[in-house]
Amino acid sequence: MLVKVLEFFKNLPPKKCMHCGKEMDEQHECYGNICSDCLGSAYRQ
Question: For residues 28 and 13, what is the distance between their CA atoms, to the nearest angstrom?
Fold first, then answer.
């Protein structure tokens, strides 16, 4: 049985940053996996 697309996205677990492990407040469908804090520190180094 196929799951409705909206139900699939609603049931995804929260995204976590690959560097620090913090939950990200973003859409789960987006491709980014690094939080803005870690992205900012990467550019400052």
Answer: 8
First vs last C-alpha separation in the chain: 49
Structure tokens at 7: 């139900």
Task: Please report the DSSP string for 12-38 in residue order.
Answer: SPPPB-TTT-PBP-S-TTSS--S-HHH
Count of domains for the chain:
1
- Give the confidence band of 41 by pLDDT, cuts at 50, 70, 90: low
Instruction: Round to whole Å and give the CA distance between 30 and 44.
Output: 24
Q: Which domain holds residue 23?
A: 12-44
